[in-house]
Amino acid sequence: MTGSTPAPFTADDYRARMERAARSAADAGLAGLLVAPGPDMVWLTGYTPTAVTERLTVLVLTPGRDPVLVVPTLEAPDAERAPAASALTLRDWTDAKDPYAVTAGLLQDHGRLGISDNTWAMHLLGLQRILPGTSYAALTDALPMLRAVKDAAELELLAAAGAAADQAFEEIRNMPFAGRRESDVGHDLAGLLRRFGHSQVDFTIVGSGPNGANPHHEVGDRVIRRGDMVVLDFGGLKDGYGSDTTRTVHVGEPTEEERRVHDVVRAAQEAGFRAVRPGAACQEVDRAARAVIADAGYGEYFIHRTGHGIGVTTHEPPYMIEGEEQPLVPGMCFSVEPGVYLPGRFGVRIEDIVTVTEDGGRRLNNTTREMVVVD
């Protein structure tokens, strides 16, 4: 069964996206776009092949021409049922044919082409072999904002995914932590995400005690103890769009220092959120959150960017990081997730997904950001 982005998207919606992508390519000086199976293809067409194999599947978008989806003949029946099928032309090839020659016939033999980041190297090399006059740019570099600004329907789906993740947190905070392994809590979180509508769970980070000082610890066999700070970061896809939220809880009553660090991170997260407004540079969100942590004396322990975009994947442009001068635009969605990580001791991170509005920002996660004490 092929994967797809669900209703309310129609063939006309996908046609508009493909036309916009082709125009953006032309504006960027590209001769066209080559999109392999992955999030860009899902967003542009709603299509995911039954299996991503060595056989070439590629969407070809060139300014002024109709979009073409090149597929292996054995997968053509699935492609014909793709949500965007009526908005594009299918060009299939059999195993006896050279798929790169089929694709080359749709392109100029010179010029710079944008190519999706997850394209297999063998396919890029095959295209370079048959089109030696062309050069290639990663789509994230050439068109980083292609999927960044969400329309009303996308925002609704992201809000629903965020609300489902919030429901999962409200359930997990009432479950026992002490005496159980991180992997047990992670299993519960995954089950809750699915119960509240997620079709795909991408991660369930449960970092207890010293493990919380590793931002991407995920889960392990460590038994959670009373007195542990526990970082819970979890998310996935609901109806094709992502959730991603972090809350840090404490097993039993926290110490004064633990409360202080949590309060610093909470204040930093609030400052990052307050910096969200149309026209502000992405780096201003990072600067606002980072300044709070630095002023409190923990600057060296905030070791990652403040945020990342989210949409049909849980990590995509734009990125809230120093040096990113891309201005915020209404409809952009991204995380605001500062943290403090004290090696060998504990970590704290608080994360919401935020969307840019006409006059500021709106949170898509709304569980408490205060310290939560669990059993």
Low-confidence residue ranges: 1-5
- What order do the helices and strands follow? HEHEEHEHEHEHHHEEEEHHEEEEEEEE
**How many strand elements?**
18
Give me the side-by-side strand order of the main sheet.
4-3-2-1-5-6
Helix share, percent = 25-40%
Mean pLDDT: 95
Structural class, by secondary structure, is alpha+beta
Largest sheet: 6 strands, mixed
Cα separation of the termini: 43 Å
Q: Give Rg in angstroms.
A: 22 Å
Label the overall shape: elongated
> What proportion of the residues form beta strands (DSSP E)?
15-25%
Counting DSSP H or I runs of 4 or more residues, the number of helices is 10
Keywords:
375 residues, six-stranded mixed sheet, five-stranded mixed sheet
Explain what this protein looks like in three dimensions:
- The structure is a single chain.
- The chain has 375 residues and is α+β, with helices and mostly antiparallel strands.
- The chain has ten helices and 18 strands.
- It has helices spanning 11-27, 39-45, 76-79, 99-104, 121-130, 139-142, 152-172, 182-195, 256-274, 282-295, and strands at residues 32-35, 58-61, 68-72, 89-93, 111-115, 134-138, 200-208, 229-238, 241-242, 245-251, 307-309, 316-320, 333-336, 339-342, 346-349, 352-356, 361-363, 372-374.
- The strands form five sheets. It has a six-stranded mixed sheet with strand order 4-3-2-1-5-6. Strands 7, 8, 9, 10 and 18 form a five-stranded mixed sheet that branches.
- A hairpin with a 6-residue loop joins β11 and β12.
- The protein is elongated.
- The two termini are 43 Å apart.
- Residues 1-5 have low confidence and may be disordered.
